[in-house]
């Protein structure tokens, strides 16, 4: 089971459950056809977003297989809603999960999706103690694929025309990461952190800070 403490804080972001106070900002991007092009739903009405915030997206913990945890991604400095992310608990025996994310076009190009999705992997591997986490996307969705590759997830397969998706056959790409790969990445990042801190300190001295 997973019982996160909120908000989940990263370097630049806060991850937290959605409330109706998020309705206007969430509707602003979930109503855009370009944003929903590769999502499993059509552009939403304001009423549909409100219904999901109060229902399907209201969960704050994972207590059994089949549930999903949807979290808003807020910019820490400004309080602006950037997007939302989801962690699915798929299977208990095989300890598998899946991640997904959607962000406002205004938030593109700053690495926010990668930063938020990293927390999803941490929640899955360290909180739920999953063995394997996957992500599935339309193979044409190259911006999303780049996020997964930056996370260190491995592209394992492309299934040809396996989905009748929005009135056309679509290929799906499957990405995955295993628990030991996550822990290896984390160890490497932790080992590099003191080196980055030392380099920043030396740069500060050179610049007279």
From TrEMBL:
Keyword Acyltransferase: yes
Region Disordered: start-end pairs: 188-209
Compositional bias segments (type: Basic and acidic residues): 188-199
Location of the N-acetyltransferase domain: 13-181
GO MF term set: acyltransferase activity
Keywords: Acyltransferase, Transferase
Enzyme Commission numbers on file: 2.3.-.-
PROSITE patterns according to UniProt: GNAT (PS51186)
Pfam families documented for this protein: Acetyltransf_3
Keyword Acyltransferase: yes
Alphabetized InterPro entries for the sequence: Acyl_CoA_acyltransferase, GNAT_dom, Ribosomal_N-acetyltransferase
Signal peptide residues on this chain, from the entry's feature table: none
Class in the EC hierarchy, top level: transferase
Descriptive protein name: GNAT family N-acetyltransferase
Organism lineage: Bacteria, Bacillati, Actinomycetota, Actinomycetes, Mycobacteriales
């Amino acid at each position: 089971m997973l019982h996160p403490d909120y908000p989940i804080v990263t370097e630049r972001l806060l991850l937290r459950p959605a409330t109706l106070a998020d309705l206007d900002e969430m509707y602003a991007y979930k109503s855009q056809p370009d944003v929903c092009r590769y999502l499993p739903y059509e552009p939403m009405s304001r009423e549909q977003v409100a219904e999901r915030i109060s229902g399907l997206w209201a969960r704050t913990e994972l207590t059994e297989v089949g549930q999903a945890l949807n979290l808003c991604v807020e910019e820490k400095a400004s309080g602006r809603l950037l997007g939302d992310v989801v962690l699915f608990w798929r299977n208990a025996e095989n300890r598998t999960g899946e991640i997904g994310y959607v962000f406002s076009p205004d938030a593109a190009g700053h690495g926010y999706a990668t930063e938020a999705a990293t927390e999803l992997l941490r929640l899955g591997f360290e909180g739920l103690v999953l063995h394997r986490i996957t992500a599935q996307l339309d193979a044409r969705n190259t911006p999303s694929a780049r996020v997964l590759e930056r996370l260190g997830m491995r592209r394992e397969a492309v299934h040809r025309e396996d989905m009748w998706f929005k009135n056309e056959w679509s290929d799906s790409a499957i990405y995955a990461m295993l628990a030991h790969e996550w822990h290896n990445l984390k160890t490497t990042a932790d080992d590099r952190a003191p080196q980055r801190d030392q380099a920043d300190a030396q740069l500060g001295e050179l610049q007279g800070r």
